[in-house]
Write a structure and sequence with these properties.
alpha/beta, 5-stranded parallel sheet, 5-stranded antiparallel sheet, Single alpha-helices involved in coiled-coils or other helix-helix interfaces, elongated, Rossmann fold
Length: 418
């Protein structure tokens, strides 16, 4: 393992051209190889005088105190931890559920939703500590670099953005060798070819054999969902109550937002619900095979959309579908803080005023099936919908309606028959 030649000269030149010198930087820190190596790299190659690391707790399940200590061992001048799970659910996940946000109509955006919140906390810390730069460990091929850079620029355009891994040109082996020069601990463990990103809303899995879109994902990659063969042989039902488009209770029990998501993750995941295998279109222009696990978000969006079918008028429902697609693209593309996103938020919030009620979902062998819904705001009128003796629909009115409705088509037909 060797360190790249002329590393300092090349990267310093790039930094001067793109961002200028930074005195104090706040680094988004995960404890992994790249973000750990970023600490000495920023100091020794780019001349950053002080590096403050920030580990953000989004419910990924990691013990953050060891991560905080590792940052200090890796040369950080200060190491911070922020628990923002509640904010993550209330201010990012719940609005996405109200928007029925599914990228390319499949992916519930668990990872994408985390990035604008991390960026927000980074900016707040930078402003509090008087930092002039924010750093992250994103590479130049993924979506996260865009999400971080655009969000930071929207929140504080005066902050420099430093992305060493985007410019240092080191392989994984070379990156580890560079870190070892500065006594950064890299625990010996079984090598995994997979790249994982987990938070309370889901797990994203890529790389390794998954880069072949024909290859079936091995069962070992999954963490949040059971294999179908291991799921119960009897269906289980869950009733999800919404208030203003926001989930507030499971099976009649009112729950705090984080608890609700966590409990539904476990419940749906135990039935194998929430696995997604897709080839998606990355913002940077390439296609990528991605595996996702997102049990709770999968069920909640499906249930919420069904409740809307009961409580919204047809024209609002149809129009909102287009808004939802645009909204999902904005989130995926890192434009959470954009003017268009703010405008769409206003529309979506207006539509949610009457979206309250309960949806009954059957969980069984990887499927979440809506089997019932009810609401005090229901627009469903049994007396109009029934074919029984209680039918109050005026059948005689249909003939005149059909005549007027079909008039343009009949006129067109008469003029074009020849």
């Amino acid at each position: 393992m060797t360190t790249p030649v002329n590393l300092k000269a090349n990267t310093s030149s790039q930094l001067n051209n793109s961002t200028g010198r930074a005195k104090r930087a706040v680094l988004a820190y995960s404890g992994g190889v790249d973000t750990s190596v970023c600490i000495p790299y920023l100091k020794h190659e780019w001349g950053v005088q002080e590096v403050i690391t920030l580990a953000v707790d989004l419910g990924q399940g990691d013990e953050l105190e060891p991560i905080r200590q590792k940052a200090l061992q890796s040369g950080a001048d200060e190491s911070l931890v922020a628990n923002v799970q509640d904010v993550f659910v209330r201010e990012y996940a719940f609005p996405a559920i109200q928007a029925n946000a599914l990228y390319e109509n499949r992916y519930p955006l668990a990872t994408a939703l985390a990035r604008p919140l991390i960026a927000k906390v980074l900016v707040e810390v930078a402003e509090k500590y008087g930092a002039d730069a924010i750093a992250h460990g994103c590479t130049g091929k993924g979506n996260d670099q865009v999400r971080f850079d655009v969000s930071i620029g929207a929140l504080n355009p005066n902050l420099k953005i430093l992305a060493p891994a985007r410019e240092w040109g080191m392989s994984r082996e070379e990156t580890i060798a560079y870190g070892e020069k500065f006594d950064i601990p890299f625990p010996v463990k079984k090598s995994s070819p997979y790249s994982l990103d987990k938070n309370l809303l889901g797990l994203a899995i890529e790389a390794g054999i998954l880069e072949d879109p024909w290859a079936e994902p091995p069962e070992e990659i999954y963490q949040m969902t059971k294999a179908i063969a291991d799921t119960p042989n009897q269906p289980e039902y869950v009733e999800i109550t919404f208030a203003g488009g926001v989930p507030v209770a499971l099976n009649g029990e009112t729950l705090a937002p984080v608890t609700l998501i966590d409990r539904l993750n476990q419940l749906a995941g135990s039935h194998g619900v929430g696995r997604i295998d897709m080839v998606e279109n990355r913002l940077v222009g390439i296609k990528s095979r991605e595996i996702y696990e997102s049990p709770a978000m999968t069920v909640l969006i499906q249930a919420h959309r069904d409740l809307e079918s009961l409580t919204l008028t047809a024209d609002v429902t149809r129009y909102k579908r287009g808004i939802e697609e645009t909204y999902s693209q904005l989130v995926y593309n890192g434009q959470w803080y954009s003017p268009l996103k703010a405008a769409l938020d206003a529309f979506i919030q207006q539509t949610q005023v009457r979206v309250s009620g309960t949806v009954r979902v059957q969980l069984f062998k990887g499927n979440a099936t809506i089997v019932g819904r009810k609401s005090d705001n229901s627009l469903y009128n049994t007396e109009l919908a029934t074919y029984g003796a209680e039918d109050q629909f005026d059948h005689k009115a249909a003939e005149g309606f059909i005549y007027v409705w079909g008039l343009p088509t009949r006129i067109w037909s008469q003029q074009t028959r020849g």
